[in-house]
């Protein structure tokens, strides 16, 4: 009989046992990469709000926001209660032969919250799936008569083959197969966008472009499109009947100070918007693409095409019930306002830190509860540290920036119990992305810790990382 482990046995594993199982059954490289940091050698006992409690009793301030998933924080009581209620009443999960009241209600609620006629929703599992569904919808809208989709040069839309074809990030460095007909333009650059359109215009003035996909706020690079750029792109897409897709997978549900970032610009409405991450309240793996009614009706709303796009877990009961509560919490607890309050504190605090540490901090940027700290290239890496790096990283022109930022992350965790991460799309930035249940006290803990860590200077930070890596070995 197979020797299967139970959840109780999993919860009793020591960190060395977890590492061993990862090396054998998951990924040796993940152990080498994450195990270099203090958090890679700890196990979590439980988590609540913005705080994680480790097995040894230490409390860690989670300022990663779950990389966009945890606007609601860890284990929000209303999210837990919604899931418990679903389970206690033995509600049915997904079934192809029955309509789901949860899908119906969730679609209704999104239509009430989104502007214009963004009324028709579809609920897959991940952000990349939502992106691919939106692109497929746009292609079908034109009946396959157009063959080009435009994206930006700093786009991050996911890592599936389709979404990855539209992603322009160094994080995807392997030449996977691409969907046909993709082309890029410079982010927030109207001239570059118009030039890309011209490359796909026929002599009679018609266009081969069926869709444009972009992030109004690029979470991976902490840049945002100007209002004038977005409005002109909208005008051109309307004129040429191009489906305009806004990717708000990360920035949705209040992260940058509005329910969705594009709603900072009244009257601006895409043809499709994608969402995921905090849409599931930190507990459900659910995403959505929401389309303007005319776009969806023309593409799919006929008996022959009604099931042309479907997934096994579409409308999974507990996931949609969870999302209903997650949306209600975001609205009733006014997540956009919470993000604006965090922005006021973080923007001022990070600017002061940059002023105090001009030799280390190159730039700070961000919006709402999503900011980044970009460090200046520091001293050459110590030989001992460079020798310990993977060959690919040691040869990386951004190795110093990555390692120095990693040293700050390591020191924040090791010395102050603050968990952060860094983004690596074009620029290397220490990402400041607290959950929206965090408040002024948590922001102050983070800012005080960051200031103290940067006081150490680049040389001591790198030396600390060397010591930590040697200890981990």
Describe what you observe in this structure.
The chain has 473 residues and is an alpha/beta fold. The protein has 17 helices and 17 strands. It has helices spanning 7-11, 15-25, 28-34, 77-88, 101-113, 127-141, 161-165, 190-199, 227-240, 293-300, 317-332, 335-356, 383-388, 391-394, 399-416, 440-454, 457-472; strands at 44-48, 51-54, 59-62, 118-122, 148-152, 182-185, 209-214, 217-218, 223-224, 243-247, 272-275, 288-292, 361-367, 370-375, 418-419, 421-423, 429-432. The strands form four sheets. A seven-stranded mixed beta sheet has the order 4-12-11-10-7-5-6, sandwiched between helices. A hairpin with a 2-residue loop joins strand 13 and strand 14. Helix 2 packs across helix 3 and helix 15 (399-416) crosses helix 16 (440-454). It is globular. 45% of the residues are buried. The model has no long low-confidence stretch (mean pLDDT 93).
Summarize the structure.
42% of the residues lie in helices and 15% in strands. It is built from 17 helices and 17 strands.
Strand order of the largest sheet: 4-12-11-10-7-5-6
Q: Which descriptor suits the 3D outline?
A: globular
Mean pLDDT value: 93
Strands, count: 17
Which residues sit in consecutive blocks of at least 5 with pLDDT less than 50?
none
Beta-strand fraction estimate:
15-25%
First-to-last CA distance: 36 Å
Q: Specify the structural class.
A: alpha/beta
User: What is the makeup of the main sheet?
Assistant: 7 strands, mixed
Alpha-carbon Rg, integer = 23 Å
Query: What's the number of helices?
Result: 17
The multimeric state of the shown protein is single chain
**Helical amount among residues, as a percent range?**
40-55%
């Amino acid at each position: 009989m197979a020797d299967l482990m139970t959840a109780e046995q999993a919860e009793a594993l020591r960190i060395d046992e977890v590492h061993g199982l990862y090396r054998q059954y998951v990924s040796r490289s993940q152990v080498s990469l994450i195990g270099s940091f203090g958090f890679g050698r700890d196990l979590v006992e439980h988590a609540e709000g913005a705080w994680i409690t480790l097995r040894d009793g230490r409390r860690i301030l989670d300022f990663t926001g779950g990389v966009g998933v945890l606007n609601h924080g860890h284990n929000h009581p209303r999210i837990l209660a919604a899931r418990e209620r679903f389970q206690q009443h033995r509600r049915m999960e997904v079934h192809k032969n029955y309509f789901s009241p949860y899908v119906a209600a969730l679609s209704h609620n999104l239509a009430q919250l989104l502007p214009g006629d963004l009324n028709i929703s579809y609920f897959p599992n991940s952000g990349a799936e939502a992106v691919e569904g939106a692109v497929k919808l746009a292609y079908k809208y034109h009946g396959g008569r157009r063959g080009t989709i435009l994206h930006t040069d700093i786009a991050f839309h996911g890592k599936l083959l389709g979404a990855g074809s539209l992603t322009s990030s160094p994080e995807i460095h392997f030449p996977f197969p691409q969907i046909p007909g993709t082309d890029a333009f410079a982010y927030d650059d109207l001239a570059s966008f118009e030039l890309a359109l011209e490359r796909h215009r026929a002599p009679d003035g018609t266009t081969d472009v069926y869709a444009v996909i972009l992030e109004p706020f690029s979470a991976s690079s902490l840049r945002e499109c100007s209002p004038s750029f977005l409005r002109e792109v909208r005008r051109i897409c309307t004129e040429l009947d191009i489906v305009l897709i806004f990717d708000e997978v990360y920035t949705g549900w209040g992260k940058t100070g509005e329910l969705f970032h594009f709603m900072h610009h009244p009257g601006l409405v895409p043809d499709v918007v994608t969402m995921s991450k905090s849409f599931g309240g930190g507990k459900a793996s659910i995403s959505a693409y929401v389309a303007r009614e005319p776009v969806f009706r023309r593409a799919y709303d006929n008996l022959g095409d009604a099931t042309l796009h479907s997934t096994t877990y579409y409308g999974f009961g507990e996931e949609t019930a969870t999302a209903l509560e997650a949306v209600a919490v975001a609205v009733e607890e006014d997540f956009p306002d919470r993000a604006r309050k965090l922005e006021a504190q973080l923007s001022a605090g990070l600017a002061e830190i940059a002023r105090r540490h001009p030799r280390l901090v190159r730039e700070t940027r961000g919006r709402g509860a999503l900011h980044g700290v970009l460090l200046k290239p520091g001293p050459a890496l110590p030989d001992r540290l460079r020798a310990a790096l993977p060959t690919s990283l040691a040869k990386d022109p951004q190795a110093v920036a990555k390692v120095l930022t990693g040293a700050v992350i390591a020191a924040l965790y090791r010395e102050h119990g603050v968990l952060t991460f860094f983004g690596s799309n074009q620029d290397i930035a220490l990402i400041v992305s607290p959950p929206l249940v965090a408040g002024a006290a948590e922001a102050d803990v983070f800012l005080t810790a960051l200031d103290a860590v940067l006081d150490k200077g680049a040389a001591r930070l790198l030396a600390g990382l060397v010591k930590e890596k040697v200890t981990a070995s």
